[in-house]
Design a protein that fits this description.
Chain lengths: 290, 160, 770
């Protein structure tokens, strides 16, 4: 399983990178950590003529906590997010989700931008970005643009990235204090892609009723996405075990899933229902720091 | 392309083609055959080496991406003329290897882990080496060996 | 002659392994670690079509690629294309079903070699594969046992059927036993296709030296002498001009080292090009090229008395063997017929086994071939019978275990196979290991959790027993030689497959000669070390090779005494051997080292017609999450009696490792084909094996209370016992956990979706009742 031949460039600026990428007629690919791209190439499912390594472009690997949320540079590696203690308060859901991604060694190389650009339907980060309403900043040879995560992911392993474009950063909207959240994923083994997963968060009003309900699912089919039927059901209600079960049932019938060799559609539907129920219970029962 | 790296504390330069992975470069161009390839698609962990202090899969890294890096392979954990280090001693004592094929990756992963987290408990160790497949031992002896070696890493850290 | 007794210092001691010294420094020498000047690399073009007729192969484009030296197809072999010889159960009637080493005019599975590309680098060879044009006319695909049985599409039209072979295991009179039995239950049970998956894929480095007419092949393993004979015959060479060399080996588990197509193709390539040729199997091809295993379905009936006494077992096993009968393809089906009944006293047996051909990778042995499957079948049958009869499943097993007074206890006899297949359990007390296992497990406490739902998870426990056959004959050789530095070289015909052979053989030799462990060096893995050798399979290395060392030590010591007697001017009988010295009665002595010039060496063979049977018990405690179908193994205990423990450290490692492999077989591992005959699990992300945090609680206890009477060591083959009963015991624990839901477990693997589906099925049944 040797990699097919390709050329390699390691530009020092974003401008240089996007120019190189746009010259190769869409046959060039950016490479960051390479943890998704190189296996595809090893199986010869991808054979780009040029790899443009983004690693030496400065300034793309920072995590910044600003008034409008958490900005994560595209080249930020999973291990950096995992180790950043500020995030346990600034975005605990992001902090938690990253722990579920792949394995130790992969987390030392894999980047947030790379995962989003790869857009695997069973991966954690595209789902989290959509659930949280994250925005993705994209640089092209001529212009930059910002896309909502839900518009960025267009299909399984498909994104809105045009040839010559690269992701530069991701912004997760500001995390409200006292927000309730949970992340639940089930896979055959630790580190495997999910058979099903749920990321959710909601706020509570003075009466303890849920508002701003975001429920995202992944590992279900073509793309990760929010489950509006379940969100609507939960909105305005007090989340307890009974409600969680009912929300799980609604999710089970509302979610769209696909079968593959690892699990059939009926299983995945039921699993999503179970995980949503468990996630809601977990979110509701978590002690909130005052 | 000409690249430079520090391999097991020795600086070197080597000419590599872009398509060559760090694993193949180490094995076939630099003679470090202790780094093993068992899947070449980033699942099994046998090829784990330490790059700039972090455990990485060398089959999922191009040699050109290691330009300027400090790389440590299993051969660099304990030089030939030195006694076994704490990990190797513990692996031998606990019979934490049989065929030896996954062992290099286990040692490099464990070394990187214990250097950063000498207090790692059994659960943490299990979760980290869940990225390394072993088909012989059933893992229990490996986890015990790594845990036991942690004591020496703790002592080293305190001395430092 | 006398050897001063110092007691058995090494046999039975947890000696740390000599192999570790190199492995822990990254200094092992696996085949891909080795290179020869001027070598080129092979890559193999494999069929992507499961069944078809080859209309043509155009290699012209590939040959134009830079760095490509040759493209070899069946047409280039010249004359008849050789077939893979059948090593075990070489029945002439299945010879037409042997696999040609390269596809000639038909392909019969995805992964079958069609062409070999030779190039300057592995990458260039792989690049060129895409440029070899193969035109294949597809034929109807036989992707299941069911389709195979219709014979609508034949893999070998001239064989007239896809039914490769039928065996029968017989004992007593099953028909009579079933007549009027109090309880009869018919049950369908199946085991999925999975594989050994050693961590090191296969590899070969072949070096044909035309000038000296010598072929050396590195990367061999398991059965070097058999394979040497085979490749020599195929290439028309004298056997003694071919050397097979075993490197360090990254795991065998039964699958590595058998004769595969590449074992001809790579030496042939070197022979044709006159250059060393190296080939490393990559993981993608490994998953479709190395032997698959275990895909079979049983439909059994059990007959019992009301008190749980088993009167008989009868039924039929259907084996999906894949496309060809390879070197040991008939062994698993044979074993399932003979060993289904395991340690249980079942006086009447009639089991028919049908070996069917399908368009899938051929099957072969994987650790405990046929025994893992048979144990799953019988343990499920007993558990179901106990439930139906309202009996305690532990008591029912106790009642039916063969007792110590019944030893030796004969197994079923085989019909329609080689005549030398009668075998019997040699010694032991099955009740002791069973009771010990229950006690270590804490059965009396844990059984109180049976079927209970605790915090949303259903708990279940189960216990079962097994026997483990070992020490297949016919013989094994060892040669001891005194070197000029006074060390002892031990040459054995057994092979190392990562099991610590050097250490264990060294322990035996050092004890026999009463010398320190460090003074012994073990050499194995070359066809030039001893006259003949039979290899490492059927848990035989320690028993057979170790016994040969034991036998060779006597003439070796005699030679030492003779040589010393001459130097010290005393009679040979007066010499005492102690501390690597030969001592005369007057106190005069001479170092062994000084005698090396007298050519002190001895070679002996140990011949064996009787197998050994280690035995033991397993207990398992699981918790099942009905929401996800996930099964957590909370505790797993095994107790096994292996006759004589040589090295408890390495043995314990084998036991724990085998159990975890068995848990992989039970809960995870599955080679999935679609109905078009395509292998879907083509990566290690899809073919899932246990990881470090899947089964963290496992305990293994080994006893040596009942030595084997069949060899001088008293040892029994071990190393497979850990895996045998896992499928049956773990699946019974799951079934017991879900007993309140009336869930039946009939199929492995018990993946989360499969467990969930079995629960859901019952929910739907209950739903329609209400």
């Amino acid at each position: 399983m040797k990699l097919p031949p390709f050329e390699y460039a390691s530009p020092r600026t974003l401008q240089e990178a996007t120019t190189l990428l746009s010259k190769h007629n869409g046959d060039a690919r950016p490479i960051a950590g390479g943890q998704s791209l190189l296996p595809l190439m090893a199986f010869r499912l991808a054979a780009p003529s040029l790899l443009v390594d983004l690693a030496n472009i400065p300034g793309l690997d920072r995590i910044e906590i600003r008034d409008d949320g958490v900005h994560v540079g595209a080249l930020t590696r999973w291990c950096q997010i995992e180790a950043d203690r500020r995030l346990t308060a600034a975005h605990p859901l992001l902090s938690e989700a990253v722990k579920h991604i792949a394995h130790y060694q992969i987390r030392n190389r894999g980047t947030i931008g790379g995962s989003l650009a790869h857009a695997d339907p069973a991966a954690e980060m595209p789902a989290l970005a959509i659930t949280c309403g994250a925005e993705i900043t994209i640089a092209g040879a001529k212009v930059s643009r910002v896309l909502a995560a839900k518009d960025f992911i267009t299909g399984p392993l498909e994104t809105a990235l045009e040839p010559g474009e690269v992701i530069t950063s991701i912004r997760f909207p500001k995390w409200r204090s006292h927000r309730r959240w949970a992340f639940q994923e089930f896979s055959k083994r630790r580190g495997d892609f999910a058979l099903g997963g749920v990321a959710l968060h909601f706020d509570e009003d003075a009466q303890g009723h849920a508002s701003e309900v975001h429920i995202g699912v992944f590992g279900t089919g073509d793309t990760p996405g929010r489950l509006s039927a379940a969100e609507e059901f939960v909105r305005g209600k007090k989340v307890d075990a009974g409600l969680a079960q009912a929300a799980g049932n609604i999710a089970r019938s509302a979610v769209r899933v696909a079968s593959d060799m690892h699990a059939g559609a009926a299983y995945r539907q039921a699993l999503i229902g179970t995980l949503i129920e468990r996630a809601l219970v977990e979110a509701a029962s978590r002690a909130i720091e005052e | 392309m000409q690249i430079r790296m520090t391999l097991n504390r020795e600086p070197l330069e080597v000419e590599v083609m872009p398509r060559v992975t760090l694993a193949d470069c180490l094995r076939h161009q630099l003679g470090k055959t202790g780094t093993h390839l068992a899947c070449e698609h980033g699942v099994c962990g046998a090829c784990t080496v330490i790059v700039n202090g972090q455990a990485v899969r060398s089959c999922l890294m191009l040699a050109v991406q290691a330009n300027g890096a400090e790389v440590v392979t299993v051969e660099g954990l304990t030089p030939d003329d030195e006694e076994f280090g704490p990990l190797q001693q513990a692996f031998r004592k606990h019979n934490a290897l049989q065929c030896g094929f996954c062992t290099s990756g286990m040692l490099t992963t464990a070394h990187a882990l214990l250097t950063a987290e000498p207090d790692a408990d059994h659960e943490r160790i299990r979760s980290v080496i869940a990225g390394n497949i072993c088909r012989c031992t059933g893992y229990l002896s490996i986890v015990d060996a790594i845990h036991e070696a942690g004591e020496s890493y703790r002592a080293n850290k305190e001395r430092a | 002659m006398a050897t001063a007794k110092k007691g058995n210092r090494l046999i039975g001691a947890p000696v740390e392994r000599v192999e570790d010294l190199r492995f822990l420094r990254g200094k092992g020498n696996y085949v891909d670690d080795q290179s020869l000047p001027n070598q080129v690399y092979a890559a193999i073009l494999r069929s992507s079509v499961p069944h078809g007729r080859i209309r043509g192969i155009d290699k012209s484009e590939a040959l134009k690629m830079p760095g490509v030296h040759a493209v070899i197809t069946a047409a280039d072999i010249g004359g008849e294309v050789p077939v893979i010889p059948i090593r075990l159960q070489p029945l002439p009637e299945v010879f037409p079903l042997r696999q040609p080493v390269i596809a000639v005019d038909r392909v019969r599975y995805v992964g079958e070699p069609v062409a070999v590309v030779i190039a300057d680098t592995p990458g260039l060879a792989e690049d060129a594969l895409e440029f070899v044009e193969v035109d294949i006319e597809p034929l109807p695909v036989v992707a299941s046992r069911k389709t195979s049985a219709t014979d609508a599409s034949l893999l070998f039209p001239e064989y007239k059927t896809n039914l490769a072979k039928k065996f029968t295991g017989l004992k007593g009179d099953a028909a009579a036993a079933f007549e009027g039995a109090h309880y009869i239950k018919k049950q369908r049970l199946s085991v999925q296709r999975h594989m050994a998956l050693p961590m090191e894929p296969r590899g070969l480095l072949a070096d044909w030296r035309k000038d000296i007419k010598r072929l050396t092949v590195y990367g061999a393993g398991k059965v070097l002498f058999f394979n040497r004979r085979a490749v020599a015959q195929m290439l028309g060479l004298e056997e003694n001009s071919v050397e097979l060399v075993e490197n360090d080996i990254g795991g065998g588990f039964g699958a590595r080292g058998e004769f595969y197509p590449e074992d001809f193709l790579i030496p042939f390539s070197s022979y044709s090009l006159g250059r060393p040729v190296k080939w490393n199997e990559d993981r993608r091809e490994n998953l479709s090229a190395m032997n698959h295993a275990r895909e079979m379905e049983a439909e059994y009936e059990i007959a019992c008395d009301a008190d749980g006494t088993i009167r008989g077992i009868r039924g039929h096993v259907d084996v999906d063997n894949g496309a060809y009968i390879r070197s040991n393809g008939l062994t698993p089906p044979r074993n399932v017929a003979q060993f289904t009944t395991g340690p249980y006293r079942i006086p009447n047996i009639h089991i028919d086994v049908s070996v069917r051909l399908t368009n899938k990778t051929p099957c072969g042995t994987y650790r405990a071939p046929g025994r893992f499957e048979g144990s799953f079948f019988i343990e499920r049958m007993i558990e179901i019978a106990a439930r139906d009869l309202g009996l305690d499943p532990v008591e029912m097993r106790r009642k039916n275990l063969v007792t110590v007074d019944e030893m030796p206890y004969p197994m079923a006899t085989m019909q329609h196979i080689d005549p030398y297949t009668d075998t019997e359990c040699d010694s032991g007390n099955f009740h002791i290991t069973f009771d010990r296992c229950l006690k270590e497990f804490g059965w009396d406490e844990k059984v109180k959790l049976q079927g209970r739902n605790i915090d949303g998870r259903y708990h279940g426990v189960a216990a079962g027993c097994f026997i483990e056959g070992g020490a297949a004959g016919p013989r094994e050789s060892a040669r001891l030689k005194l070197e000029s530095d006074g060390t002892i070289s031990v040459f054995v015909g057994s092979s190392a497959v990562g099991q610590g052979l050097e250490t264990v053989m060294g322990q035996i030799a050092a004890d026999m000669l009463a010398v320190p462990f460090e003074r012994v060096r073990v050499f194995h893995g070359s066809t030039s070390y001893v006259r003949e050798g039979f290899g490492s399979y059927h848990s035989r290395s320690t028993v057979m090779g170790g016994s040969a060392i034991l036998l060779a030590s006597a003439p070796f010591k005699e030679k030492l005494c003779k040589a010393a007697a001459r130097r010290l001017n005393v009679s040979e009988q007066e010499i005492t051997l102690i501390d690597e010295r030969a001592v005369a009665p007057n106190g005069a002595s001479i170092e062994w080292k000084a005698l090396a010039s007298d050519d002190i060496s001895a070679e002996e063979s140990f011949t064996n017609t009787k197998h050994t049977y280690a035995y033991g018990a397993h207990c398992c405690h699981v918790a099942v999450d009905p929401g996800t179908g996930h099964v957590e193994v909370l505790d797993y205990v095994t107790v096994e009696d292996v006759g004589k423990i040589i090295n408890p450290l390495t043995l314990h490692g084998q036991v724990i490792g085998a159990i975890v492999q068995g848990l992989g077989s039970t809960f995870m591992e599955h080679l999935i084909y679609n109905e078009d005959g395509q292998l879907l699990t083509g990566s290690l992300a899809d073919y899932v094996v246990p990881l470090a945090d899947d089964y963290p609680v496992i305990r293994g206890i080994t006893l040596d209370d009942y030595p084997s009477p069949n060899n001088p060591l008293g040892a029994k083959g071990a190393g497979e016992g850990g895996i045998i009963a896992v499928g049956g015991v773990a699946s019974n624990a799951v079934a017991n956990a879900l007993s309140s839901l009336q869930v039946e477990i009939e199929e492995l693997p018990l993946t989360p979706p499969a467990v969930w589906a079995s629960i859901e099925k019952q929910r739907l049944v209950e739903g329609t009742k209400n």
